[in-house]
Design brief:
Its EC number is 1.10.3.2. This protein is mainly beta and 589 residues long. It is built from six helices and 33 strands.
Length: 589
């Protein structure tokens, strides 16, 4: 007789199918091949929320009632569908800072650049795929100054089974630096624009929205990082401050820098980090070998180069070691009396430290993580960046550099005027007339001693001017700080691309001598770079992403004053080199 065979009943089949469906819903990553991405859905409700800091309560704009906003966690190769619904009176957009947005320029987010704002009661689904990126990025509102409270981390894990190029950490912790204002930031920027003066500064800096014990009425609002001895932690650092570069240090501990702007770097050790608004930095923190009988301050305070007022305060968090599991009651009680160590941060204007830190940043430049810096250049640009003035309106006294002028900012003396129609739509449908022009000067029209004695006329010109680039153009851009109203560091952010920082220096850029010192082997690759105070930065990038891409200073007041421009990258010949039509739910102006 033939052996009996198992015939699955309909019940067994139903259980099996139900199990597979449940497994897919709970653990979708395990159903797809290792290198394939999955689709992740997020819902962002933009709402008002009452928040109290420094004993001041105010209503803020927040995502899902959270401050800071919820973290987005994904893997390289994943598709993200993020539905943003606006329940507040402010118009809003969300920018996914550092995401390349390859062929998804409609999802980049800057208001009136790639989209019209999401108006009250309206929604928009940001649809993009994370291609060739892994590490820490972030998102924030990109409409007026709403990003003071609307921001959060984007954590991009490597593809499944792909290891980090450094020791696997015990735990990963995101720390986002921010600024807290006791009053509404929209009122602050509106007052600055009306008077022509500088804006009121923040009242505190924050770790993950918490000011910490060095501020009045804030001991209960302190970020605490609890660690175990002899472990390695990965700290994902994000600077979401509006107008300040920051130093960061933990007392009696050192960091190993392993990544900036979601790009791995050659590891190096430091006891202090400098991080500009818009930048991210991943560091490894190796804890002490045994319980240290102490706690340690984590401090952040500004790096200052400009002549304007600033928030001269320090935010503090606390690093605490967990007690051994079999601690005596005596040791447990003594925890309340542990010595608290405080780190020594660089002085406020320590440009020497910043320069040394920046010079340590190098791409890994291996076969697995290549450094594809363009070796040839198709188009060269020389942009002066800095402050200037506008004349004060008649019969009005202003609070700019003089009572007859208002602060302004510019690129090649053109202060960018925001349009009322989204630039990308006008570009895509060839309707530029009355929206923008393509005559932004490629170099200063009137050369001068950029870091020396400023010219007598400091007034800027105005316009909505872009630069058009053919697809796959290799670009070299020199960004030169000016001393027109005082030299100052400027963190410049380029949307839609990473770029390579091939050179930096102080004084005026010398085209005859400085290129000989460019690093074309392992320059750092990133999306936001600090142009040094009284100096210059040279970057290169390949214009391989069709669309309209914003470039601006990430000091929010400088962007407000006009230190911004846009690149229009034309379609290529292949289908994967063209920008698709806009989605049907793209907001209208």
């Amino acid at each position: 007789m033939a052996p009996a065979t198992f015939q699955p009943s309909s019940f067994h089949m139903a259980v099996t199918v139900f199990g597979l469906i449940s497994m897919f819903l709970l653990f979708p990553e395990f159903i797809v091949p290792a290198n394939a991405g999955i689709t992740r859905h997020y819902n962002f409700d933009i709402v008002k929320k009452n928040v109290t800091r420094l004993c001041h309560t105010k209503s803020i704009v927040a995502i899902n009632g959270q401050f800071p906003g919820p973290a987005i966690v994904a893997r390289e190769g994943d598709q993200l569908l993020i539905r943003v619904v606006n329940h507040v009176q402010n118009n809003i957009t969300i920018h996914w800072h550092g995401i390349r947005q390859l062929q998804t320029g409609w999802a980049d987010g800057p208001a009136y650049v790639t989209q019209c704002p999401i108006q009250t009661g309206q929604s928009y689904v940001y649809n993009f795929t994370i291609t060739g990126q892994r590490g820490t990025l972030w998102y924030h509102a990109h409409s007026s100054w709403l990003r003071s409270t609307v921001y959060g981390a984007i954590i991009i894990l490597p593809k499944r089974f792909a290891p980090y190029p450094f020791v696997k950490p015990e735990k990963e912790v995101s720390i986002t630096f921010g600024e807290w204002f006791n009053v509404d930031t929209e009122a602050i920027v509106n007052q600055a624009l009306a008077t022509g003066g500088g804006p009121n500064v923040s009242d505190a800096y924050t770790f993950n929205g918490l000011p910490g014990p060095l501020y009045n009425c804030s001991a209960k609002d302190t970020f605490k990082l609890k660690v175990k001895p002899e472990k390695t932690y990965l700290l994902r650092l994000i600077n979401a401050a509006l107008n300040d570069e920051l130093f960061f240090s933990i007392a009696k501990h050192t960091f190993t820098v392993v990544e900036v702007d979601a790009v791995y770097v050659k590891p190096f050790e430091t006891d202090t980090i400098v991080i500009a608004p818009g930048q991210t930095t991943n560091v490894l923190l190796k804890t002490k070998s045994e319980f240290p009988n102490a706690t340690f301050f984590m401090l952040a305070r500004p790096y200052v180069t400009g002549l304007g007022t600033f928030d001269n305060s320090t935010t503090a968090g606390i690093l605490e070691y967990e007690l051994p599991s079999k601690s005596s009651s005596f040791l447990t009680n003594s925890m309340k009396k542990l010595q608290l160590f405080k780190p020594k941060l660089p002085i406020l204007n320590d440009t020497s430290f910043v320069t040394n830190f920046t010079n340590n940043l190098r791409s890994i430049a291996t076969r697995q993580f290549p450094c594809n810096v363009p070796q040839k250049v198709d188009k060269q640009f020389f942009f002066t960046i800095g402050l200037g003035t506008n004349p004060c309106p008649k019969n009005q006294t202003c609070q700019g550099p003089s009572n007859s002028t208002m602060f302004a900012a510019s690129i090649n003396n053109i202060s960018f005027t925001m349009p009322t129609t989204a630039l990308l739509q006008a570009h895509f449908f060839s309707q530029s007339n009355g929206v923008y022009t393509t005559d932004l000067p490629t170099k200063p029209l009137i050369p001068f001693n950029y870091t020396g004695t400023p010219p007598n006329n400091t007034n800027v010109s105005h316009g909505t001017k872009m630069v058009v680039l053919p697809f796959n153009t290799s670009v070299e851009l020199i960004m030169q700080d000016t001393s027109i109203l005082g030299a100052e560091s400027h963190p410049l952010h380029l949307h839609g691309f990473n770029f390579f920082v091939v050179g930096q220096g102080f004084g005026n850029y010398n085209p005859n001598k400085d290129p000989a010192n460019f690093n074309l082997v392992d320059p750092i690759e990133r999306n936001t770079v600090g142009v040094p105070s009284g100096g210059w930065t040279a970057i290169r990038f390949l214009a391989d992403n069709p669309g309209v891409w914003f470039m601006h200073c990430h000091l929010e007041i400088h962007t407000t004053w006009g230190l911004k421009m846009a690149w229009a990258v034309q379609d290529g010949k292949q289908s994967n080199q063209k920008l698709p039509p806009p989605p049907s739910d793209l907001p209208k102006c």
